[in-house]
Automatic annotation (TrEMBL):
Gene Ontology process terms (BP): cellulose catabolic process
Gene3D superfamilies assigned to the protein according to its UniProt record, in alphabetical order: 1.50.10.10
Residues of the signal peptide: 1-34
EC number: 3.2.1.4
Species whose genome carries this gene: Panicum hallii var. hallii
Family, similarity comment: Belongs to the glycosyl hydrolase 9 (cellulase E) family.
Protein name: Endoglucanase
Renumbered residue ranges of the record's region Disordered: 525-544
Amino acid sequence: MARGRGGARGVTGRMAVLGLALFVLAAAAQVAAAGHDYGTALSKSILYFEAQRSGRLPGGQRIAWRANSGLLDGKANGVDLVGGYYDAGDNVKFGLPMAFTVTMMSWSVLEYGEQMAAAGELGHALEAVRWGTDYFVKAHPEAEVLYGEVGDGDSDHDCWQRPEDMTTSRQAYRLDPQHPGSELAGETAAAMAAASLVFRSSNSGYANQLLQHSKQLFDFADKYRGRYDSSITVARNYYASSSGYGDELLWAAAWLYQASGDRRYLNYLTNNADALGGTGWSINQFGWDVKYPGVQVLAAMVLLRGKAGGGAHADVLRRYKQKADLFACSCLGRAGANNVRRTPGGMIYHQSWNNVQFVTSASFLLAAYGDHLAAARQAAQCPSGAAAQPAELLAFARSQVDYILGSNPRATSYMVGYGATYPRQAHHRGASIVSIKADPSFVSCQAGYNSWYHRRGSNPNLLVGATVGGPDEYDNFADERDNYEQTEATTYNNAPLMGVLARLAAGHGGGRRFGHSLADEVSATSIKSDNQTSLPSPSLAAEHASPIEIEQNATASWTERDRTYHRYAVTVTNRSLKTVHELHIGISKLYGKVWGVDKARYGYVLPSWLPSLPAGKSAAFVYIQAAPPADVWVTGYKLL
């Protein structure tokens, strides 16, 4: 589960920092671990989804320790909500992460379905997508009704039961015009649009059905705007919307344009680029909550394929591409203060809880974007003026996947069942309790905790292919069941990973970009730098300039206890002709207290009494520290 209590009754002692000797030994093991079987990892990454299935399992179910569950879901609400996926190690069906999972599974298939077919896994990937979309069709019984959750995290976390034994609440929660939820409706629209492309050639009738649902859900999300966790409040402690719904509306429009070719959706994507933050956000993480980098890459792909149509559309799409380039550059360490942090072992690092989700999603975006750049014989343009070549994007994506698979200081694979050393105590109810097929005796909530959750030793059932939350910022990891921040796996960890694994399994020349014919393909590693489209540095500086100006000055200094302290004043000015809303500011190398801004999920925001910044107006904040000035930059904003 993404956030909130995470399913544990209490977290006991944690790991100590690894000693130098262990790091030396692990480094040697890391070198020995070079070279991975991406095809095997791909197979396992897709197999994991079968362990997450809710409902009546099919005859071809390969995870044999699972059985039917949730067969009465929706009955109390008069609707059939049997099916779908449990998000992680719990037994709740959360709509937002499930929809994002299906969107990313579909995108993985669209980009790299041929590679999956070559590995013998395309059929399994399509089954995984359809298990989700069949549920979404049920969850959308009317044009302006969407069921967004079954069960609730609070009651579920008081229980440690196999899904087959569930005695917790199975209440269903819905969105409608009186209870809007634009993030959830928009993400589900994106999932069904992307999946309609997946099934377009093999099952056109089903694809048409999905596209129709997608269009209705997008209209619902846009017409009745509101945060979904204000309507489905039980989701707030687990999957709260921090980025708002602007990114999901743009994300859905981008996918609907891909799926339908209807320029109404391209118009929406470009006309709302400022107002919904598409060209204002420069965030370097992509996941179930914040979709802006995904939107920016999709929009850039439209431009790279020559589908912009010229004029105003092309201008806005170029601005989207600048943000997509910035995301790539930040991952490669070429975006200055906006660079992504990395652990000593080289892993992208954003947060302690399930950090791997951002590693897999970034790896997929980089691989896919790199392939599209290669096909267009272009590169990502970084703020310094340097170009990040497509081959570099793929190489970095490979390094992140290799880290997950075991090329790391601990020589540990963070995919269960892959490699010699991998997590044995994944935080997962079904995997940690004896299979109902082996012992059908009922396991109660408390018996699950007493007999299984606190039990030391490997889980009785292997959660094959599950990609767990992974190590901390120092590459440390504790394989303990109650260490849910590191040992819980989620569906949205695996969904983008299956795509990049397929890409890597194909080797050189394996890029297959959806929207291109085979004749258009050019290997990401075959493009030479002299073929790249590069812009001169002055133009690049102008392109990456923000309408939000930041000025920082030291206004006072004093010495206390042999340390010199400085008071820094930061002025943020809106130089655009529109009003800035939802301004997010990034601050790093901050070692003291800050006044005048509030901490938020994605940086800092202006105080609640200052919700917007009109054209030409400024806001200020101050901080004190015995150090040089902090790095301050704009993370995101909307212009209205």
